[in-house]
Amino acid sequence: xxxxxxxxxxxxxxxxxxxxxxxxxxxxxxxxxxxxxxxxxxxxxxxxxxxxxxxxxxxxxxxxxxxxxxxxxxxxxxxxxxxxxxxxxxxxxxxxxxxxxxxxxxxxxxxxxxxxxxxxxxxxxxxxxxxxxxxxxxxxxxxxxxxxxxxxxxxxxxxxxxxxxxxxxxxxxxxxxxxxxxxxxxxxxxxxxxxxxxxxxxxxxxxxxxxxxxxxxxxxxxxxxxxxxxxxxxxxxxxxxxxxxxxxxxxxxxxxxxxxxxxxxxxxxxxxxxxxxxxxxxxxxx
Length: 286
Description:
Blueprint lengths: L3 H20 L3 H8 L3 H9 L6 H10 L5 H11 L20 H12 L2 E6 L10 H12 L4 H14 L10 E7 H5 L5 H15 L4 E6 L13 E5 L8 E5 L4 E4 L2 H17 L3 H12 L3
Parallel strand pairs: 1-2, 2-3
Antiparallel strand pairs: 1-4, 4-5, 5-6
Helix pairs in contact: 1-3, 2-3, 4-5, 7-8, 10-12
InterPro entries: Cro/C1-type_HTH (IPR001387), DUF5753 (IPR043917), Lambda_DNA-bd_dom_sf (IPR010982)
Protein name: Helix-turn-helix domain-containing protein
């Protein structure tokens, strides 16, 4: 179990090591190709030290990696290009975003699919502005108003991944408590439920409700998110969110456990069609 930056370095290093191995060259050979000392390649591959995007580009060029999506993903794992003037949109909000949240957003922006269990609030990717404001105020109410406003804007900007040319595939299981908890008042909640019904009709969104009648289930221990990437499954990661930080699980056995848990939750949840009806019923007060 690791914090975001450490996981990012380890995953980047492992993928670079695999790319080198496919060429059949040693770390010393790789170092000579890019004009480094062999120890620098070793530190990068083991995740012992950070690496600049410019250095990742050098290695990818040396290894003949031309696939745009894979290059972009590995460069994202290297972090912001501080010296090259190339920043992602969330860089403008770095003053109010903790590092773990920036890591979460960077993974979300490059993922092919996301599977999430929520048992408290609506997933951020599906929140209305009013709902997002109410949740942000409750979670970070002690912060200045301008920072609260910035956090809401970040939440809404994240939703662009659902409208991209290749939209993120989102599978969400919502505990019934998410729908019953009145966040922001009746009007805000009614509009949020309407937003969920709209989102559930998008081809890239699969939304299921886990009703109270399902009883105890594997998700009662807390929400989680599974990020998956088309370029390589080795970069898949589970994120557990906490009040002051996030934890990332990258081991194969952890991924398998959470994947099986999510499949079990989907099995016990209402079908997407019945979930739509269920949400509509709550919106109608039934």
